Amino acid sequence: MKDCNQCGKCCRIYGDGGLSATDAEVAWWQSHRPDISRHVADGKIWVDPDTQEPLTYCPWLTGPSEHGKYSCSIYHDRPEDCRDYPVLVSDMIRDECEMIEVHDLTNLDRAQQTLESMTS
Prior knowledge:
By secondary structure, the chain is mostly helical. Helices cover 40% and strands 8% of the residues. The longest helix is centred in the C-terminal third of the chain and has 12 residues, at 108-119. It is elongated.
């Protein structure tokens, strides 16, 4: 398994709904980062602040840079769901994560163990 190359696929795919924020995160954002809290509705992220409709992208993903890399404009204040990614190799495969290498696909259990050691 390779290190993250900042391809942004995880943020582009997960930015299209299915993420949530904890009550503590929402409270902190309301106090310290109202720009972020405007994009949260009923604990779900990311929504249009005007319509409350789910966005089809993460509003905080920037890029690509001239080197093809993406970055998170709220990296230090990002939600736990984002901080914890990736958790499962199966999610990485679904998201076409570029950390996955061909040999990882031949033994998913070993790939999962490698991932867990990288993220612990």
